[in-house]
Design a protein that fits this description.
Elements: H1 9-23, H2 35-49, H3 55-61, H4 66-97, H5 110-140, H6 143-149, H7 153-186, H8 191-212, H9 216-226, H10 231-246
Helix pairs in contact: 2-7, 4-5, 4-7, 5-7
């Protein structure tokens, strides 16, 4: 007598729902229903991740060891950033502690010196936070931390803010240093120094603008400004359609 396998549609439906639950973004990470809170949520997402929602974060975290691998990569890049931050701090400290070799290029004037001082402060705090994050970063990789983040979209955003602060402090310290150098050149009594400063920064900003044009950041910003549908929504719609076909 041969064995017969009975098909249970209830169990199959439960397996399908379980598959969808593990692959779909948690409800707590979706945008709030309130228009005002939704605007705040999407603004924070774009400022922190250059995306309008947390869908792409979930796509990364739901992979095997996705949460751990994400923080391993982050800590590796943070260590590299600390090296560059130390170079910025050293450069600013040299500018502040030395006199200009030429009277025509006076970087200890009120404007440049104030910018250099701000760059020094942001460099110090940035380096301290980078070291602190590197020390406590091991606790971020644990699964119990990920489970706590899944409880609320705002908890996850606060976690991303903590991870982003060292990067933003580095950016501010570098920008203030660049502005200090540019102000020094433009306020110089030497016409040649003013011309070279203007030409140099014009070329740098042109290269920066050209490099941003093909980047995903510019395309997402363009869609958000024009009120178009983001690619993330299209991907989400296609994934939901596939899930329905699977069910």
């Amino acid at each position: 007598m041969s064995d017969t396998i009975q098909y249970d549609p209830l169990k199959d439906s439960q397996r399908s729902e379980a598959h969808l639950d593990t692959n779909s973004i948690p409800h707590q990470w979706e945008p709030p229903s309130s228009p005002f809170l939704c605007l705040i949520f999407r603004t924070m997402c774009f400022c922190l991740t250059f995306h309008s929602d947390l869908e792409f974060m979930w796509e990364t975290f739901r992979e095997p060891n996705g949460w751990e691998n994400f923080h391993v990569r982050y800590l590796t890049q943070l260590n590299q950033l600390s090296t560059v931050q130390g170079l910025v701090l050293t450069t600013v400290a040299i500018f502040i502690s030395t006199r200009p070799p030429l009277d025509q290029i006076n970087y200890v004037a009120d404007g440049p010196y104030t910018l250099l001082s701000e760059s020094l402060v942001f460099s110090l705090f940035g380096l301290l936070l980078q070291l602190f994050t590197s020390v406590v970063g091991q606790t971020y990789q644990k699964q119990k931390t990920f489970k706590a983040m899944k409880r609320s979209r705002w908890i996850l955003l606060c976690h991303i803010i903590v991870l982003s602060i060292p990067v933003y402090l580095f950016g501010i310290s570098l920008l203030t240093l660049i502005f200090a150098i540019s102000v020094t050149g433009f306020l110089s009594t030497s016409t040649l120094a003013q011309i070279f400063t203007g030409a140099t920064f014009t070329l740098l900003f042109a290269c920066l603008f050209v490099s941003i044009l093909p980047s995903p950041f510019f395309s997402r910003l363009h869609r958000m400004v024009l009120g178009r549908i983001d690619d993330d929504y299209d991907d989400k719609g296609r994934s939901e359609e596939k899930a329905e076909n699977y069910a």
